[in-house]
Design goal:
Elements (H helix, E strand, L loop, with lengths): L4 E3 L3 E4 L2 H12 L4 H15 L9 E7 L5 E6 L9 H6 L18 H9 L6 H4 L1 H9 L1 E2 L2 H9 L1 H6 L1 H7 L11 E2 L2 H12 L7 H13 L7 H5 L6 E2 L1 E5 L2 E5 L6 H11 L11 H21 L6 H5 L2 H8 L17 E8 L5 E9 L7 E2 L4 E2 L3 H5 L23 E5 L2 E7 L5 H14 L5 H6 L3 E4 L12 E5 L4 H9 L4 E4 L11 E5 L6 E5 L6 E4 L1
Parallel strand pairs: 17-18
Antiparallel strand pairs: 1-20, 2-10, 2-21, 3-4, 3-11, 4-7, 5-6, 8-9, 9-14, 10-11, 12-13, 14-15, 15-19, 16-17, 19-20
Helix pairs in contact: 1-2, 2-6, 6-10, 13-14, 13-16, 13-18, 14-20
Length: 527
């Protein structure tokens, strides 16, 4: 197993060596944690193009040296013409998962503009290495090749996407240079003004492309995407700490819901023993059921769901079995970073296109791969709280967290992986807080997943508890005897469940420790 890394000043964790190296370069040159996060994002767009992009969304949570915690929620609206009747009139019983109809207004440019206002350097400096990689080419990795191979047919169907990722019409070999010169040009322009994504030539190109594909955008909702301000984090107590999360439309409240259900129950239980696993599964299923029943991006239902009296009632009988047939895999792809600078400023940053390569379409001449968040996050179910509605942001799986106390930062992290995110984040938080594990061990341990969660494309699937190989067989057998439907699965190396990150700070010494998930090419550095 990888070893935890330790340092006194700074720490960084990401899912790719080049991304981590970029963050370290910026911090060493005098940038702060926000600078480093923005620079790492630009490199991520190029070296992990299936996982993230400027045509996707961003959520970040920031803890300032003075203890103030704030968030950036960069996600966008559905189209103004996107009524339920519109999609049904096109013959759809659900919003499509690919193509123009699956796209919501990208929130990433607005989030970068907001975060850049708190950076020391300008975006032209921070994005320079990402732009250079896009223009001069980066070496295709085994992860890139696997992503492209699995989605070859839809990628090939879009000429602009195929030109980038299927050179000569073929899946690129590992080591082949992939060039994205159109993206480099676009990023150079956006670095001068990221909000120009929502107006002017780039907006016109995007809207023309999407409306020609049938998407009912008016253009007004696109322009409205530029308006984004900092929001306070949402928080609960967990153990002796305050756990902070990103607010709606992020799924952060679901981690807080699970924290309320589990607080105080796990420290005396065996790590990943049968009772602990049953409680993890029960807390996750309760949160997903409540989300499906009550929550959309515009309402305040989540506040009632976190009411302490309600949570106390839900704790009774928590961990009862779920039964199910066997659904498919968790789909979705995302990547993230965590960074602490020499002033103690901390950023947990996560960004995504929703599914791998998002909608599998690229705005011609721009290199901008578009997300499919609307198709993933909104329902076409009459009367449902999360039924698709014009200019409503679809619910998100993305979330990022920080835990602190009166003495300062204690832990920060995130974990990509669709509806697995809120579950795996809770498991990592428990490992850190309830059992005192170091970040590397916490992100490396086997994970369990209640599936499905509440993604629109799988919400009707029956439920089961899936566990990664490596959990004690005694735990699995005890869960089965108790009536749980349990399926053991291989560790998802290179898959959507594999890039948890965490950084911890020792309150007595101030020493930082960092860990990155071995399921990906995760790397952490500290000094």
């Amino acid at each position: 197993m990888q070893q935890v890394v330790l340092g006194r000043s700074c720490a960084i964790a990401s899912s790719h060596p080049l991304i981590t190296a970029e963050g370290a370069r910026v911090l060493a040159a005098g940038g702060n944690a926000i600078d480093a996060s923005l620079a790492m994002a630009a490199v991520s767009w190029v070296v992990l193009p299936g996982q993230c992009g400027i045509g996707g969304d961003v959520f970040a949570i920031v803890r300032e040296p003075d203890g103030r915690v704030w968030t950036a929620g960069g996600s966008g609206y559905g189209p103004d013409g996107g009524t339920p009747d519109f999609y049904r009139s096109q013959g759809h019983s659900a919003i499509p998962l690919t193509g123009a109809l699956s796209v919501s207004v990208p929130g990433a440019p607005a989030a970068h503009a907001l975060l850049a206002a708190h950076a020391r350097w300008d975006l032209s400096q921070l994005w320079a290495n990402g732009i250079s990689l896009a223009r001069n080419g980066f070496a295709c990795t085994s992860k890139n090749r696997a992503d492209i191979t699995e989605r070859q047919v839809p990628l090939a169907a879009d000429p602009s996407t195929a030109a980038c990722f299927l050179p000569d019409g073929q899946v690129p070999a590992v080591g082949r240079l992939l060039h994205q010169s159109d993206l480099a040009d676009t990023l150079e322009a956006l670095a001068r003004d990221p909000l120009s994504f929502y107006r002017g030539e780039l907006a016109d190109r995007s809207l023309e492309f999407l409306t020609s594909g049938g998407a009912p955008f008016s253009g007004d909702e696109w322009a409205a995407g530029a308006a984004l301000g900092a929001e306070p984090a949402i928080s609960v107590r967990y153990g002796d700490l305050t756990l902070h999360q990103t607010p709606l439309p992020s799924a952060g409240w679901m981690v807080l819901h699970q924290a309320g259900l589990l607080d105080g129950s796990l420290p005396e239980l065996d790590l990943l023993g049968p009772r602990a696993c049953a409680l993890f599964a029960g807390a996750a299923r309760t949160a997903f059921d409540d989300r499906f029943a009550a929550v959309n991006a515009d309402n305040e239902a989540w506040r009632e769901l976190l009411d302490p009296e309600r949570i106390a009632a839900q704790r009774v009988g928590l961990g009862a079995p779920t039964t199910a047939a066997v659904p498919a895999r968790i789909d979705g792809d995302t990547t993230s970073t965590v960074c602490v600078d020499d002033e103690g400023r901390t950023v947990s940053f996560i960004h995504s296109l929703a599914f791998t390569f998002g909608a599998r379409i690229t705005v011609p001449g721009t290199g901008v791969v578009l997300n499919n968040r609307l198709g993933r996050g909104a329902y076409l179910v009459p009367g449902h709280p999360n039924e698709v509605t014009p200019r409503r942001k679809p619910l998100h799986t993305l979330n990022a967290w920080i835990a602190d106390d009166a003495d300062g930062l204690r832990h920060a992290g995130n974990c990509p992986g669709g509806d697995g995110q809120v579950q795996w984040n809770m498991q990592v938080i428990s490992h850190l807080v309830d059992h005192g594990l170091d970040p590397q061990r916490a992100v490396s341990l086997p994970r369990l997943t209640v599936f499905p969660g509440s993604d629109a494309d799988v919400v009707d699937e029956p439920s089961e508890v899936r566990v990664e190989e490596g959990l004690p067989q005694s735990t699995l057998e005890t869960l089965r005897i108790a009536g749980h439907r349990v399926r053991e699965i291989p560790v998802q190396r290179g898959g959507p469940g594999g890039s948890a990150l965490a950084i911890s700070r020792d309150p007595s010494s101030g020493v930082l420790s960092a860990g990155a998930d071995p399921r990906m090419e995760g790397t952490a550095v500290a000094w």
